[in-house]
Amino acid sequence: MGSTFTRRGLLQASLGGSALLGLGALVGCSSSGTGTGDAVNGASNNKAMLPDHLPYDGITPDFPGQPGLSTDAYATYPSEPVRAYATAPGDGQPLSGLSYFNGSLRPDLDRNLYWQAMNTAIGSDLQITVVPAAEYGSKFATVTAGNTLPDMFTILPTLPAIPQLLQARAVDLTPYLAGDAITAYPSLANIPTASWQGCVFGGKIRALPIERGLQTTKLMYLRRDIAESAGLDAQVSDFADFRSLCAELSAPQSNRWALANLPLDYVRSMLAIAGPWTLEGGTIVSNWTREEQLDALEAARGLYEAGYLNPDVLAAPPSQTNEWFHAGTAALKWDTYSAWTGFYVYSGVEGFGVQGLPVPGFDGGKGQPVLGAPNIAVSAISADSEDRIETILKIADWLAAPFGTQEYLLNKYGEEGVHHELQDGNPVLLDERKGEYGLGHIYLAASPTVFYYPGSAEISREPQDHQRSMLPDAVPDPTVGLYSETGSRSFAGIVQDVEALEADIIGGRRPVSEWTSEIEAVLAGGLQSILDEYNEAYEQSQ
Amino acid sequence: MGRPTTDDGVTQSTTKTAQTTASETRRAEPVGKRPGGARGRLRWRARLRRDGILTVFVLPGVLALLVFQYLPLLGNVIAFQDYLPFLGIADSPWVGLKNFEILVNGDPAFVRALVNTLIITAVQTVFVFPIPIAFALLLNSLLSERVKRVVQSITYLPHFLSWVVVVAVFQHVLGGSGMINNWLRTHGHETLDVITNPDAFIALITSQVVWKDTGWATILFLAVLSTIDTELYEASSVDGASRTRQLWHVTLPAMRGIIVLLLILKLGDSLTVGFEQILLQQNAVGRHASEVLDTYVYNNGVVGGNWGVSAAVGLVKGVVGVALVLGANRLAHAFGEAGVYRR
Fold first, then answer.
1. Of A289, A215, A274, nearest to A7 (Cα)?
2. Is B2 helix (H, G, I), strand (E, B) or coil?
3. Among residues A421, A451, A473, which one ends one of the domains?
4. Considering the entire predicted model, what is its pTM?
5. Best CA proximity match to A202, nearest among A238, A168, A227, A156
6. Mode of pairing for the β-strands spanning A277-280 and A218-223
7. What are the chain B neighbours of A503 within 8 Å (beta carbons)?
8. pLDDT digits (tens, 9 = 90+) for B280-311
9. Does A233 lie in the same domain as A189?
10. CA angle B4, B69, B163 (to 5 degrees)
11. Which residue of B has its CA nearest to A502?
12. CB contact under 8 A, B286 and A509
């Protein structure tokens, strides 16, 4: 028993980790304490031991979100941030960790003023081994096999056999965090319940959430400035509209293509078959076996064939798709909400602007987007470090200090005058020290995310507006909170195989008709067992 | 521990005295005598005294070999386990030969990887292997030392680039939005699909290997060419041999030993084809065209978490490689060549 990661989280992370790659370590890529409470099924039998939710009330959002529908947004940072911790949480001993980073590798401690400031403020040296996001899986496997896990480590949803791993190697946090025990850690108590449900494995709290709330949900981004300068109307009311928008945005002669990455999941949302699973009349079924898949594949293949995708789209690493989007080599990109403000931070283009496309039905009407997982990852504390558990939890609590506190300001924006300067009370990052933040700590403990773009209330609010228009139609992943033994072992591999097949079909390397037989083989090769196990778990949870 | 005369291959083949001593004792020793007697031990000590200093020189290398090559071999036991990294070898459940079933039950992903590997090996043995030989002969026939040096230096260089760089260079030149296609596009021509064309994949990776390693591979052949006694050429030209006949009757026979040696070693590697190179380009053409045994082991094991099955495949691959080397070596001996080691 016990809840696990959402399967969709797996899909997203393996879809190239654009969620991870799209945002800078620092930017206020975030969501409020809203979460997706009612989006979670089947975890009711775990509720008894979940931590209480005590939302931080020290600050009121300028644009409050609605639980399950939109994320809190802030126009400005408080001019007098509250100090959440009177004394440093550390015990003077280093905190070792294993995590990942995006972008460039941070400078070493002696040349890294941000790292030095964090160590001083925390009172324990952060000694976190960081590896590039794409290599995290293999690094993690070798570290676990060598039995050299550090105090804290990040668990990406793509790792195989997570529940077994955590039961064998992670501290059971239930006695320290369940119920009102969490009041000792007020910042962790500020994290919404939906995220904690993703931390329960085998009936025990085995991890801390890296909350993203609604931000892991994906949408189709459009470079508004490009569309405007081309005089295009970006209203999309069916697939045909989208296709003609792609046609108008493509200008191969001047080195521009409409799409930076595969639009398959967007097309699937139009056909209401996005995500691997759907709940249909009380039974969980696989979306991959739905007939509409063939239409989605055919439509996406048509876009590729027409030359609307960057010709290197199948060969390029995900990080490159961001570069294309920033450089305007591509004008449309499928990415998560958390990338929104990050696009502005890293674009460096005059007049840069993005907007989100709506999700219409394939032939008009409304489409059906699928909600992302409430957590982008979770982090665990090594069973070998249980003797220091309270210090480690305190440090985690410090790292999870919410928006509006002094701790959050240092954590995300470094020191004033060194890493950022205040413009009208908003911390604006200075370019010269932008490379220092990738310590990996943001994937060991994190506060609930919010939308905040320093210096522009408008940009802070844009993504929230889009959420309000898109998310009322969105459906959650029905397997969130359910556990499948087979799934925990082999679903990551299955997703990889299916994605390879999708790329083959869209790229015209294999005909659309092969989808059906290949998916039948996938069903026989383990997917059916996963479905059966999920359905069994679902029935028990009802 | 075996016959005392056979544990000394190095000395035998390197010094003439040792060879004589060894063969003499071999003859002197009565068949069936219990090995390791008082005499044998004495000789062992005497030899140690004589070669002691050499042994010390060899020690660090042997140690490194043991620690980094032989010790990790023990990890292959996970081929017989349902291995989970966090449980470790000690606690992972044993499953017998279950992991090896994939070799015989016709798993399509495995079969595809095997077939691709064999095709790529065959193509590369036919097209890649002879090129450095031809290139070495060409260089050798150049009269100007300076031109030769310059050409050599330029062709060696790509060997020192990592595959990441080589693949990136190829993609920037040949890719869909690369140099050539951008030129074609701006001049209104059809673009070429090279990088993402599965049918061109084998040709692409083969040309990458040729571009990267031909220069480097000529070094050995050039070294052999420089050892050929020039009197042989003079004598043959006195006898009226043309350049072609000289090539056929003097140069190539002199190179035969090294060619056979490298071919045997290549055979041992035949199930190992450019892991890094292929993995980097796998998304571009899809796994159907590009999955080979090594990437299969990686994708299935490290990424997919099926460690046991992957280890089983890797183990069998290693065993087949050793068998091929030994078999080819035998064949070489049968044809009177030295092979990898002397009999």
1. A274
2. coil
3. A473
4. 0.78
5. A168
6. unpaired
7. 283, 286
8. 898 888 888 899 999 998 888 877 778 899 99
9. no
10. 140
11. B286
12. yes
